Amino acid sequence: MDLIEDEGGNTPEFTVSELSGAVKRVIEGEFGHVRIRGEIGRVSRPRSGHIYLDLKDDRSVISGVMWKGVAARVETQPEEGLEVIAIGRLTTFPGQSKYQIVIEEIRPAGQGALMAMLEKRKAMLEAEGLFAPERKRPLPYLPEVIGVVTSPSGAVIRDILHRLRERFPRKVLIWPVAVQGAACAPEVARAIAGFNALSPGGALPRPDVLIVARGGGSVEDLWGFNEEVVVRAAAASEIPLISAVGHETDTTLIDFASDRRAPTPTAAAEIAVPVRRDLLAWTGEMQVRMARAANYRLEVRGQRLRDLSRALPRPETLLDAARQRLDWSSERLPAALVRGVQTRRLALTEAAGSLRPGLLRARATEGARSVSQWSARLAPAHLRLVAARRERLGRVSDRLGGRAIRAEIGQGAERLANLSRRLDAVFAEGTRTQRSRLDALDRLRETLGYRETLRRGYAVVRGDGHVVTGKAAAEAASGLEIEFHDGRLRLGGGSPPKKAAQKGKAPEQGSLF
């Protein structure tokens, strides 16, 4: 340190940096590592990761700083109002002309401080609703897979596996974590979140229930399960969670956030699964009861069925009436068939008798007249249509000329030709249809005429020029004449009939033999 002597005296002069450096060396030289007991006041956590805080008692305040590396590994995180013991070294901060302690280790000042911090944290989390009963989920009765968050090397996991094997063997997934120390809280929180992140039905099965377990210990040993990150992870777990931390008298904050608290890890295994032997016994008992109930139900229904059957008639009685009706109907069936055939034959004979050649001729004449009328009307209609189209064409041609007129004339001529062809075709088709109907009627007339009947082996008998319809008339006649389909045969004497029957005229009814 250089001294600048004043020309007016021998008092040394310092620069601000020189004086600050001198004070720094004095403080750091006189006070190496110190232990300070006090209450944490203001706590600041900037984005750099360092922690700035105040340590105070009833009369004084000293600033403290905890660098990022130290803040990440300490077990107890500073909280406002917590009484702690801070271990570090004193130094100065020339930029603000103040001294401070660089904290290298911090821990609560006794059991009372820990309990006070625990109660404060519990009240805060409870106010957020993380301990509310309605948030707790029911445990599955018989889980397929059980996830266990604990140390893989301790006696806890052996006790859990042994108890599960005794009660009801299940698949167990173990997520190894540290159960005390600075790494405990983050590892437990990551394990709970990791189990919840597993996909159902994936390569690694997702547990149906979780057990967070640790053996007994002091408050400091169990403190990792009081950390806020663990409590929030337990409350956010979608998988039902059983907390089994410490002995029955030990209480941690995860017990309040979990869905079920077990006094010991062994009790957690007992809560997770039922006893297999008890289930088998209960199943056997239910099976016996079900069989007994089924047998009783069948017996009651059988007795009811037998009681109802007594009121029913015998099957033979039910069939007797039907059998008798069948016999009676079978006896009547031949006569009914004969009567039906006779009735339909009589109806056919009556219908055939109502057909006369005169009626057929009248229908044929009417059809021919209708065809003639249509043919007589079609020709004038055709001429009128042609005249009307020509007249219309003449009116239009007065307004048109040149190529358009010739094109219109060509189109009109084509349409006229088409219409003419269609009209001729319609006329010819109508004529053919009417001629076909007339021919059909003529064929029907010929078919129903008496000459066609003669072709089938019948004959017409005439006596003295009149049709003979009975034996008495034939005996009284002086001569008989029999007409066949290929000619007439005269039998006996007598003059020939005065007037021969007209060709095509049907004989009277009853003269065909």
Automatic annotation (TrEMBL):
The keyword Cytoplasm applies. Bidirectionally degrades single-stranded DNA into large acid-insoluble oligonucleotides, which are then degraded further into small acid-soluble oligonucleotides. One of its GO terms (biological process) is DNA catabolic process. This is Exodeoxyribonuclease 7 large subunit. Belongs to the XseA family. InterPro entries: Exonuc_VII_L (IPR003753), Exonuc_VII_lsu_C (IPR020579), OB-fold_nuc-bd_dom (IPR025824). Residues 130-400 form the Exonuclease VII large subunit C-terminal domain. GO terms for molecular function: exodeoxyribonuclease VII activity; nucleic acid binding. Its EC number is 3.1.11.6. Residues 14-107 form the OB-fold nucleic acid binding domain. Heterooligomer composed of large and small subunits. It is found in: Cytoplasm. It catalyses: Exonucleolytic cleavage in either 5'- to 3'- or 3'- to 5'-direction to yield nucleoside 5'-phosphates. Keywords: Cytoplasm, Exonuclease, Hydrolase, Nuclease. The gene is xseA.
